[in-house]
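As a point of orientation, let us examine one representative protein, giving the amino acid sequence and backbone structure tokens.
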Amino acid sequence: MKSAGSQTHFSVCGPQSVRWIGVCLLSLGILALSEVPATAQVTSVSQLSDVQPTDWAYQALQSLVERYGVIAGYPDGTFRGNRPLSRYEFAAALNTVLNRIEELGGAATLLTQEDLQTLQRLQQDYQVALDQVRSRLDDIDTRLLALENTRFSATTQLDGEAIMALTGGSENSTLVSRVRLNLLSSWQNRHLLVTQLQTGNNGGDSVGLVHAEGENFLGTRGLLADGGGLDYVGADSGVQLNRLYYSFQPLENLAISVGPRLVPRDFIDRNRFANHERLDFNSSFFINNPLIVQNQIDRNPGAGIAVNWRLNNTPFAVNALYIASDANSPTRGWFGDRYQGSVEVEYTPNSPLALRLQYTRANLDRTEVNAFGANVEWSFNRFFGAFGRFGIGTYEGYHSQLGRDLDLQPKSWAVGFSVRDFLIPGTAAGIALGQPFIERNLGNSTQTNFEVFYNLGLSDRLSITPSLILVNHADNQSQSGLTWQATLRTVILF
């Protein structure tokens, strides 16, 4: 219930409407808020900074102040008329109103006979409704007590997701599964501890196979970059701690996250149309720019810090992170190989359009990486949107896992479209095309990726998504030919 006002009101706030007395009682009840001590009683509505003459409850509040002197504000000079009241607060408010009525009982100039008649009429007319409300509140109390006795935690929200995908195509058919359990602990609005557990069947797919010389340069788990394939492959059968970090907001527009298990994709390179393997594209390449979100860091969470800062009264935001995947190693440590540092400047001049300019510096297996990227999204209307990601960078140095010196200047691009409510309400469809690693000194061709999907939500907790992924010249090898796979993805939320 909320305190409010109306333009039609009866005698306490003006003549005409019997219903208005309930609203007036709630307005009077602001006196008795127990959470924050009230200021001295105000003598004019103008003393309340968040009440304006244009507000629809203004006349009611003005009448309550001038005729009865029963309105008080908060210490900061606000009234907070839209703030919800708890049951205890309403009980205290009602008691205050009744006491005030008794005090005014003998003051004929203040409490008129019409007021008393209206209150009696209300008591009779709404007695049944009040009894029903009292019964429902008692039932809520009983159910709440039962929930408190059986709840998982007073401060932790528990949820999870299970992804199961049946694939078939150029290679053998496979079943890929991944299950995640999220524990979100929040004891204040600006403090959050994120813990994520993960397990799976270590399933693979056609695109993620080892190619050419026995080295997988470009794939979901590629040594150089993420070149695509199902994003959720490779989840080990044992239970893993996949994420563990603490986020807090020292300022309303500033969030800082720190912990031993962070991944870059949680903080940079976001996109409304291509960013989540359980909602849109299956291919890891279309979920993130492979030059900006480095595969070996994103697939191997590490210790780090991330900052998300939205500049006040501007369309700009700055996102930055530093993550070291081997921070627990005594030989590599916090600043040793492998690490990634990234900065992203986000520009959102309006809701449909967003542009992100990015820079990443990384050290991966003794190879230095410097990359610049751009991420753009544009929503034409509530049904149709487009996105694009572009990147250019350098890979220099001796790569210890490949056992060779690298001097590469790769480029990357991806474009796609998304359609909502296509043919069936509540659905989402998408199509995307791109090349993850354009570099003539790596292989003898350029890998090209394509995906189309159709997401059908059967309920809030269950969805199925058929998709088709095509990869030509996987690993930048012409002899790889065309690799294709059809996937039926099922997602269950719990």
Q: What stands out?
A: The chain has six helices and 19 strands. Residues 20-150 form one domain.
